[in-house]
Specification:
The chain has 93 residues and is an all-alpha fold. The chain is built from 5 helices and no strands. It is globular. The N and C termini lie far apart (47 Å).
Length: 93
């Protein structure tokens, strides 16, 4: 009995690229912005944006926080990201 492969969001790579470009950052600048200097490389960001690899949940959370969107907006193919990033907060803490 084999395990079924996990379904992957089809638009994830596109959205990760949209976030980086919306923030006006290079791939290396994004790594610093996410606070992932010790764990990510420019090649890994490129792989995310090309759909070769998927980021960890923690990295996705950091993308979401940087863009000021819910993680759901990134991983749900039926949802679009806001046109302007970072998005305006819907609430304050």
């Amino acid at each position: 009995m084999g395990r079924k492969p996990r379904r992957k969001p089809e638009r994830l790579a596109e959205k990760l690229l949209q976030i980086r470009l919306g923030l006006g950052l290079s791939q290396n600048e994004l790594i610093r912005h996410l606070g992932e200097e010790d764990t990510l490389t420019q090649n890994r960001i490129s792989d995310y944006e090309l759909g070769v690899h998927e980021p960890s949940l923690i990295t996705l959370l950091r993308y979401a926080r940087a863009a000021n969107v819910a993680m759901e907006a990134i991983v749900d193919d039926e949802l679009d990201l806001p046109d302007k990033l970072p998005a305006k907060p819907k609430h304050t803490r």
